[in-house]
Every structure is written in C-alpha cells, then in structure tokens.
Amino acid sequence: MVISNKPLRFIIAILVACLPLVGFANAETETTPAQTETTAVVAENATKTVDEKSNIVEKIAEKKAHHVLDAHEFSLFEDEATNTYYGFPLPIILWDNGVQLFSSSKFNHGEAVAESNGNFYKLGHNEKIYKTDASGTMTGDEHHPSNPQVLDFSITKSVFTMMIVALLMFLLFSGLAKSYSKNGGISAGAGRLFEPIVLYVRDEIAIPNIGEKHYKRYMSFLLTIFFFIWFLNIFGLTPLGINVTGNIAITAGLGIITFIITTFTANKNYWGHIFWMPGVPTPMKIILAPIELLGIFIKPFALMIRLYANMIAGHIVVMSLLALIFIFKNIGMGAFSLILTFIISIIEILVAALQAYIFTMLAALYFGSAVEEHHHEEAH
Is the whole-model pTM more than 0.85? Predict the structure, then answer.
C-alpha cells in the first residue's frame, strides 16, 4: 500500500507550530523546590569548575614564567603538597653604599625580607631586588613596585649555567688539544666526538665566508660561540628550568661582542664602503651613507632577536602543550599532548644546533665583510 507524504508533512508542520505554545505554557508553571535546588547545585558546580580551571591556568602561567625567566636560586623541583623546594641557593651581590653579599636563602623563595649590614631587601615577582624596610613593605603595583632598586651583580641561575658550560667546554677542548700533542695530531678522549664539528666550522663556515688569509684570527671566537650557544640550548631542553639563550640580556651580550669584534678589526675598505661607497654617483653616496651606517647596528640587533625569539618560542610552545593535560584532564587530550610535546622536543633538539650554526654563520659573514679586500683602482 502506498501512503502519500503530504498528510505526514502536514501533521509534522502542525506539531512544529504548536511547540512554542507548549513552551509558553510550561514557562508559566511554578518551579518546584527540588528543581530550584538542582539548578543551584548545577550552577555551583559550574562555578567551582570555572574557578578550578582558572586556578590551574594561573599556576601553569606561574610555572611557565619561572621556567622562562631567570632566578636568584637554582630550584630543581617543588613539592606543592608540603610547599618544599628542592635546590640550592645562589650568592646575592648588590651594590648599595658598598658591596652587600649574602645568600639567596635569606629571601626564602621571595617570602621573607633579607637583611645585610642594616639594609633590608625584598625579592619581587619579577625577580628584581628592591630596597625596603624591616617589615618588607612594597609600594605601588605588586608586579611593578615603586620601591628603589639596587645594582644587582648576583650570580643568577643563568650566570651559574654559563659558568658550568664554560667549565665543560674548557675541560673538553683542553683535553682535545692535549691529545693532539700526545698522539701526534690524532685526537683521543671525549673531545674527539667534537673534532668533526670543529673541522666543519673551520672548513664550511670560517674559510668560505672570511677567506683563507684572515680566518685564523676569528676561529677562536667562532668555535667558542658555536659550542657555547649549542650547549646552552641543550641545557635549556632539560627539566631543570634553564633558559639562558631565551634571555634577551644574554643574546644582547653575544650580539654586542660580535659587533665590537667586527668594528675594531674592520679595514679601511669596510669603512670606505659605508661612508663613501665607490662606484656610486655622489648624490647617492650622501643618501646611502646613513643607511649603511645604520646597518652596522642592525646586524647585531638581528643576531640578538633571532636567537632570543626562536629559543623562547620553543620553550613556550612545549610548556603550553604540557599545560593542556592539566586544563582538560582527559586521557585522550593527555595522550595527544604528550605525543605532540615529544615531536616538538625532537624538533627543538635540531633547532638547538641550528641556532648555534646560524649565529656562527652570520658572525662569520660580518667578519668577512669587515676584512674583505677590494681592488677598484686595479679593476679600473
């Protein structure tokens, strides 16, 4: 038997048209106490969930900041249940009407006021040290107090890590140098693992970009800067919360050193191409001179920003992916987050060496341009 669809469509249309009337009728009925209580419980649970997620996000942001930023103590990890920190303090060195020297343990992880020779100091949330009174009163905003600051020459976590890396490099490469003299030019020991990299920096970076005549003058700096950045980047991938190359003050220092070496080893041809470019009409020389002069300062700035931005971005991405586990509290999201974090961490290992290579390559290019010899007169 065949049934027409038109009556069926008509009935469905009538039911849909009556739905708003049914809804209005239900809205006018009185709400029972049980329904009110259930609604209140649901709203309370929703509020608790939002508050809980807000607290989790706040704690994750705090942990992320502590991982990325520098610190006056070396904290390995923290037991939140007992509020116990595991690590070791670092020396605080201040200049405030003389040298003030004491341990960072006096700050008690930023909770206490440190006293030195009758002066009182407080550690702010931004890891800056402020001068205060015995009660530790901080004026102004909590994150940006208006208390007077003091000159801080402390050995922070980043400085301590650089000392460790410098000592490690000294032991590795001094052993490599001694093995050459003992074994007739044949490397031995742990340093031989880095011999191919040393040869690569010399043959593929220094000589092609600087030239065989001048490259030896810069080899010590190029090798030092390559392994220094590489080792620091590797330390930054450990769970110790070290992020030296993600500190713009460190990358600025490396850029300034490169700028100083380039400036004070440049020959007259380098300065001649900057202030009075040969082969260019005189009006264009006047226009190009300030542009070329500005380029001298842009080069180290580019070195600074490139290394800083790439390294800190990697740390933030990894921390953000791990934070998804605590925000969603879901097995599927946790597994997805761990897999993605593992993949990004593998990429970060490659980026650690790549950034060291790029910084060294660009430094060699700058040195090569500084000592390049031009023979315009002979060519003409």
Answer: no
